[in-house]
Write a structure and sequence with these properties.
The chain is mainly α and 326 residues long. The chain has helices spanning 3-10, 13-26, 36-60, 64-88, 94-105, 109-122, 130-155, 166-174, 177-206, 208-226, 234-258, 263-274, 280-288, 294-325. The longest helix is centred in the C-terminal third of the chain and has 32 residues, at 294-325. 49% of the residues are buried. Pfam families: Sbt_1. This is Sodium-dependent bicarbonate transporter.
């Protein structure tokens, strides 16, 4: 892999702010971001990416290429948590396998946003409908994970099944704040089109990278605080957090190549497939699978897979796609 691709990605101000946050924790600095602000940054990023995606979708319309990309996104979101569960079951108990499989079956919106920033930096085009693909990929893993959990609870008469009702499953899958806000912003972007985007661009376009830098600074602080928990997890899980994203990305690339996605769309599909959730799924698993240990699935996704993807995964996936697509 060309070292320039790695440097081009890492020497990006928002990425460097992520590592600055980690460094602050390692050096025991008192640097912190007041707690209401990270939530605000999350809301800002979700609105910005949803609005922009909706605007791009209004321009491109819905054709066969869009259906192909969205269909492949849904397929990956369904198969990844299923085969991940059976791989994890060889080493972990059922409940931790469910939670971890759901975590790696869902996606990270911030990883996706960082990937978009990378494509824009190197001048590679992508379809705005990939934002819709991202929102479609967030929920299936939650549903599949909760169905697995419901099946496990049903086998165990001593478990309280009240948290795994269909109502709770669908509420967590489709009305969790991230999915709801993304879908809403995407819809607003579609119906308001170019006029709407032009009126919102000074806030949600021009200032986007600045807010992303603030958000990644906070993520660096949080990830570094979690990294000490990794000592307890063992080589299998740490290896899983790096190898599984690459494996998932390779499957997505193969599908994208076979179905002739564009280079930019295939890269984003691979990046989404290789990312792991650290917000929506952990929240859902904590509510509905309390038997699973958050000390396993949260540090793996946040302290290993997320930093790996935004530093080395992005240039690696792009290198492979660029080589395949030519």
């Amino acid at each position: 892999m060309n070292i320039d691709l790695i440097l081009q990605n890492i020497l990006n101000p928002p990425i460097l702010f992520f590592f600055l946050g980690m460094l602050a924790v390692f050096l025991k600095s008192d640097l912190s971001i007041p707690q209401p602000l990270p939530k605000f940054f999350s809301l800002y990023l979700l609105i910005a990416i949803g609005l922009h995606g909706g605007y791009e979708l209004s321009k491109s319309g819905i054709d066969f290429d869009v259906f192909k990309a969205l269909g492949l996104a849904i397929l990956m979101a369904i198969i990844v948590p299923i085969y991940s569960f059976f791989i994890l079951k060889t080493k972990l108990d059922s409940y931790n396998s469910v939670a971890l499989a759901a975590t790696y079956g869902s996606i990270s919106a911030v990883t996706f946003i960082t990937g978009i920033t990378y494509l824009q930096t190197i001048g590679v085009e992508y379809g705005g409908y990939m934002v819709a693909a991202m929102t479609l990929m967030e929920s299936p893993a939650i549903v599949i994970g909760l169905i697995f959990a419901a099946m496990l609870n049903k086998k165990d008469d001593t478990k309280d099944n009240s948290n795994t009702s269909l109502k709770e499953i669908f509420k967590e899958a489709f009305l969790n704040p991230s999915v709801f806000l993304l879908m809403g912003a995407l819809f607003i972007g579609v119906v308001t089109g170019e006029k709407g985007w032009t009126s919102m661009e000074p806030l949600f376009g021009v200032l986007f990278k600045g807010f992303l830098a603030f958000f990644l600074l906070d993520m660096g602080l949080v990830a570094a605080k979690r990294i000490y928990e990794l000592k307890k997890l063992g080589f299998f899980l740490i290896g899983f957090a790096i190898i599984m994203p690459i494996f998932n990305a390779l499957i997505a690339m193969s599908l994208g190549y076979y179905f002739e996605l564009s280079k930019g769309d295939a890269f984003l599909l691979a990046l989404l497939s290789g990312s792991a959730s650290y917000i929506a799924v952990p929240a859902a698993m904590r509510l509905s699978v309390p038997e699973a240990n958050p000390g396993i699935y949260l540090p793996l996704s946040l302290a290993i897979t997320f930093p790996f993807n935004i530093s080395l995964g992005i240039p690696l996936y792009y290198f492979l796609i660029n080589h395949l697509w030519g």
